[in-house]
Amino acid sequence: MSERNVKGEGMGAAEDSLQRAEELLARLEQTRAKLEATEDPEVAIEVMQELAEIAKAVEAAIEEARRRADAHS
């Protein structure tokens, strides 16, 4: 495989990771809207836990994209 193909595949993987982060960010926004819409403290706690999980997943996706981009630059 040529060096160009390897770099192209790496950038594609980084772009996939970035797309995943964007999808997670959209989910984060939807979940945040759910939090704003509730007045039930128990539901609010559940939604905040979900927000924390999504935020961790976003951070992991961004780090993965960064790692893949750096590995192929």
Overall body shape: elongated
Listing every helix as H and every strand as E from the N terminus to the C terminus, the arrangement reads HH
Sheet with most strands? none
Residues in β-strands, percent: under 5%
What's the mean pLDDT score?
A: 82
Number of continuous helical runs: 2
Number of strands: 0
> What does the radius of gyration come to?
17 Å
Could you say how many structural domains there are in total? 1
Our measurement of the CA-to-CA distance between the termini, rounded to an integer number of angstroms, reads: 17 Å
Low-pLDDT runs: 1-7
- Relative helix content: over 70%
Structural class: mainly alpha
Q: Secondary-structure map with pairings?
A:
Blueprint: H1 3-37, H2 41-71
Helix pairs in contact: 1-2
Task: Summarize this entry quickly.
This protein has 73 residues and is mostly helical. The chain has helices at 3-37, 41-71.
In words, what does this structure look like?
The chain is mainly α. The chain has one domain (3-71). Helix content is 90%, strand content 0%. It contains 2 helices and no strands. It has helices spanning 3-37, 41-71. Helix 1 (3-37) packs antiparallel against helix 2. It is elongated and about 50 Å long.
Could you list some keywords that capture this structure?
single chain; 73 residues; mainly alpha; 2 helices; 90% helix; 0% strand; elongated; disordered N terminus
